[in-house]
Amino acid sequence: xxxxxxxxxxxxxxxxxxxxxxxxxxxxxxxxxxxxxxxxxxxxxxxxxxxxxxxxxxxxxxxxxxxxxxxxxxxxxxxxxxxxxxxxxxxxxxxxxxxxxxxxxxxxxxxxxxxxxxxxxxxxxxxxxxxxxxxxxxxxxxxxxxxxxxxxxxxxxxxxxxxxxxxxxxxxxxxxxxxxxxxxxxxxxxxxxxxxxxxxxxxxxxxxxxxxxxxxxxxxxxxxxxxxxxxxxxxxxxxxxxxxxxxxxxxxxxxxxxxxxxxxxxxxxxxxxxxxxxxxxxxxxxxxxxxxxxxxxxxxxxxxxxxxxxxxxxxxxxxxxxxxxxxxxxxxxxxxxxxxxxxxxxxxxxxxxxxxxxxxxxx
Amino acid sequence: xxxxxxxxxxxxxxxxxxxxxxxxxxxxxxxxxxxxxxxxxxxxxxxxxxxxxxxxxxxxxxxxxxxxxxxxxxxxxxxxxxxxxxxxxxxxxxxxxxxxxxxxxxxxxxxxxxxxxxxxxxxxxxxxxxxxxxxxxxxxxxxxxxxxxxxxxxxxxxxxxxxxxxxxxxxxxxxxxxxxxxxxxxxxxxxxxxxxxxxxxxxxxxxxxxxxxxxxxxxxxxxxxxxxxxxxxxxxxxxxxxxxxxxxxxxxxxxxxxxxxxxxxxxxxxxxxxxxxxxxxxxxxxxxxxxxxxxxxxxxxxxxxxxxxxxxxxxxxxxxxxxxxxxxxxxxxxxxxxxxxxxxxxxxxxxxxxxxxxxxxxx
Lengths: 363, 363
Fold this sequence. Notes:
Two copies of one chain form a homodimer.
Chain A: H1 3-25, E1 31-35, E2 42-45, E3 50-53, E4 57-61, H2 65-86, E5 91-92, H3 93-99, H4 113-127, E6 136-137, E7 144-146, E8 149-155, E9 158-163, E10 173-174, E11 182-187, E12 191-195, H5 198-206, H6 209-212, E13 215-219, H7 226-239, E14 243-246, H8 251-261, H9 271-274, E15 280-283, H10 286-291, E16 297-298, H11 301-312, H12 319-331, E17 333-334, H13 347-359
Parallel strand pairs in A: 5-6, 12-13, 12-14, 14-15
Antiparallel strand pairs in A: 1-4, 2-3, 7-10, 7-13, 8-9, 8-11, 16-17
Active site (chains A, B): 98
GO molecular function (chains A, B): ATP binding; DNA binding; DNA topoisomerase type II (double strand cut, ATP-hydrolyzing) activity; magnesium ion binding
Domain Type II DNA topoisomerase VI subunit A all-beta (chains A, B): 139-188
């Protein structure tokens, strides 16, 4: 991220604090409004093609002791973040929580990590600046990329130029916490294959799928970190690469696809920054369990509940998903992506993926 | 791993199958004995300085239908592994489980993943060959390294020479699944600092701790993967680097230290391959919670139980650990490594680590 961006993030934060000042001056009780972050308050934005927060708001106001304390914490946090940006440093959410113990005003100290996490999210929403631009690092690290991509990463120790096949070991290129420090130099990939499990990621790399099909294999590592979603979106937007998502065939994995494609309810304010609405789901589809006669496990009660809750989730209200989820509820079965190995170790790269990518119009 | 090693692993496996053949020929009921894998059957081996299995054994014998089925599965698995080595391929434990569905004899198919996992462990123990040398990949990926180390990794796509500071991004060098494919070319590091959490790993990298103190920062990422423990041991044994382990100050984190230093009960047969008995614990020590007045949380019931169980664990029966664990039970408190941020973001690199490393005789 450039010095200009850092400066801008800092100004946005200071503007926030200035609003409280203005409210005081006008004789108003200081307050801050943020969108309500629940499933009922996310809606589809036709312009950006992602789900964003609706109109419902909740207000933090100094008209109660509790509200006043929240605003006090916000002001202390803004001061810390502005200083951090000034000094070009960064910190984790957890460090912020502990650091608050050193603040002079005890009322401003956080009583739990949830409280400081939520406040930082509120500040993201109200200021329109992302956590990464506040230089707040996640605890979770991003995952890896393997494929024909040459990039330049701006590190604190200078620039690094890395080719994500030729300059890395079998583990691939480790995505940094803030992928906006990356510039794409050259890319011979035709599409992105984002893969849930490490076992499948390694299978694809061993079978040379990235080389044979000019694919960028992005390891999601379960529920993907923000860094992983961000770089996927940038690869799509800036290089025009189609994004395909390959997960297990169960409701928890559909949520992984959902977080890549539509963003999450908790961070719908970041959908335009993190979500790739054009991302397509490869599988494992419930239909694949039948078509390829895959080894499966019975759905548990919590699987059934999760599927039913997805039918109610606006992000999954498409003909495709309704059909697949209802089929799965009928079947009463789920399958993992590695169950394709029951047809042999090369079935996934020789047959399954080429057939699916062809059907999806990617190949 | 070299072609010779692959050939040797293959022969060890075939020897195992040959034993059953010999037993048949001698008119014996085929059987296989493996050490009992419980806490009561691990003991300290003075030669290698690690904990290994004791003399208790359990026998899988074909004198019952259940036992015969176990041996049948073992033979099918041996055949699969021998073929895999022949073709220089690899697979995950999960793939093996699913692949068994394609075996002609239904009795040989695994009924659960636990069953196939346990069988592969039995084969490791009986053959003396590690899972990595069978070319079985873990699901869990290894973590990352940052520091003054230049290495050569033998990948399926040829050799890669990588410097773990100069040729990697801020994410560091991703440890491959089998670190025995790595050759160390050159190392300017004075010691290894193995770190539990991503947040702390990033703090150390941001503060340039690896550069200032010539440290190799190995990210453990919670309970470390086998690959992470293996490369740590190799760095210690081959380059003579002292290993220090830096975790949260709670019983679960002491187990992370224990798995680096002493190996785990479940894989005591691999201690000589994975464990670094000379590894030292930096902290967070219960004594640090008092000395540095760290923010803490009260011990939960399960924390107390875990601490008490560690007092019974032969791996923790040293004066140092007994004193620390009893102190913690008295205090009734635990602290995370990032709680050092309550003294400022640089406290860990300017004060805490230098003081501890000095006291431990590493600096």
